[in-house]
Description:
The chain is built from 17 helices and 16 strands. By secondary structure, it is α/β, with parallel strands linked by helices. The protein folds into three domains: 7-113, Orthogonal Bundle (Arc Repressor Mutant, subunit A); 142-149 and 393-501, Alpha-Beta Complex (Aspartate Aminotransferase, domain 1), CATH 3.90.1150.10; 156-389, Type I PLP-dependent aspartate aminotransferase-like (Major domain) (Aspartate Aminotransferase, domain 2, 3-Layer(aba) Sandwich). The strands form five sheets. It has a five-stranded mixed sheet, sandwiched between helices. It has a four-stranded antiparallel sheet with strand order 12-13-16-15. Strands 5-6-7 form a three-stranded mixed sheet, with helices on one face. Strand 9, helix 12 (324-327) and strand 10 (333-338) form a beta-alpha-beta unit. The model is unreliable at 86-90 (pLDDT under 50). Keywords: Aminotransferase, DNA-binding, Pyridoxal phosphate, Transcription, Transcription regulation, Transferase. Residues 15-83 form the HTH gntR-type domain. One of its GO terms (molecular function) is transaminase activity.
Amino acid sequence: MNITLAYDQYLAIHRYKYLALYHALRAAILEGTLPGGTQLPSTRSLAMHYDLSRGSVSQVYEMLLADGYVRTVTGRGTFVSEDSFGSTSGDIKRKNMALVEAAEVAGGGSASETAALPLSAWGERLLARPTPLYEKRSKNVVSFLSSGLRMEHFPYSEWRSALSYAGGKEGGLLQSTCPPEGDEGLRKAIAAHLRITRGIRANAEHIVLFSGSMQGIVILTQLLLDAGSAAVVEDPGFHGIRRAVEINGGRLLVGKLDDSGLIPEDWDARLLFVTPSRQFPTGVVLPLERRRTLLEWAQRHEAVIIEDDYDSEFRWSGRPIEPLKALDRGERVVYVGSFSNTMFSGFRLGFAVLPPSLVKPTIAAKALYEPLPVGLLEQRALARFMNTGGYGRHLRRMTRIYGERGRILRTMLSKQLKELFELLPGDAGLQVYARWLRSREEFVAFRAAALRSGTDFRDALLYQVSPGEPAACFAFAHLNAVELEEGIKRLLLAWEDVQSAT
């Protein structure tokens, strides 16, 4: 086993080679580079590697053994000791000694005094608005937070067949590449799907694929928004869009909402983000008259509208809603979609249908981040999955399943928690938006009690530009009927706890 040590750095400090090797090994153990249980190379191998005699390396191992850093096993070799730094006090000792080692190599001075490296204005804005932490959930918690979708209904056999087809005979297709905008076959399949299901006159040459829709939104924001320029965002709205604008140095203009969605105004801006088919997070649908007003605004101000159609594939009732892109005659709308909700959460693939004038700059920007698209095998497999009808069948099946779960949740919320929440109407999407009917203080107490009872839901404050009325978002696609019932039962117990405490 070969290991890499900071030998040359310690050789510049210590006169003798065996001392340099000793300190390099000790530092690697203290820093955790060589974790407990790691077998060290034989004395012969290490002697050859660092141009030392076997006797010198044996002396180093004996010094480490005497200090408790390693242990020997007869007939097997020398191993890093597992228990030297296993306790809490040992961990502190490890960190403190590692700092001493680092300072020694650096030529003196405390490691804690190291100056922070300067960041660009973009980097400072990024740190000022940290990314929401990944939420790891306990198994015994019934969580109404949006979650990775369960896979028991996923058509594995069809997907495996598509993956096998995409690999080609003897893996020939795996050796080929494609342009930054993504696989042409998949872009054609997406265009055909959108023409039928969304009424969008899409062409493959106007579609660019991204590693998730959020990457597309960030790149488009960088292309279209100068620092200091204004962008209109919905309030409440997706916090990722807000972050993209702010980190790019843009100014937020708040787009107010009512029960019909975004209220059009004569904004002094050249970029608007909107979720018209199903407003995020409230779920309301933007009326046709307002859609036309937004298109007129964009034409008048020479502005661009980025339409995020994040989960409108799942509709339970009513006629399909025409996207803004389908109504756009002035080529002012960018339509952004994603496969993360319709396939599985780890399938990070998004796309944008672009006006012709934005195709070339978007491809150039995408090439800067990814000269060669990632997940090419998955792209080609998805094209096969769509072209053979498997994707359409999968959508119809999941629409039935998710629709039933959504109806169960709405029924239970409206009957058992009607004193607490008012549900906004919705016939699509994978979560329910509910306005809180009591005081803000009671909402805070209720959410804390819910966590204690073993359930959780999303506080809509996350999506608000400025604090508004208390509200909750209940995701349901990942929960079956039994789990939904148990979650509501726990919410009822949480409210009883709040009442008993007042």
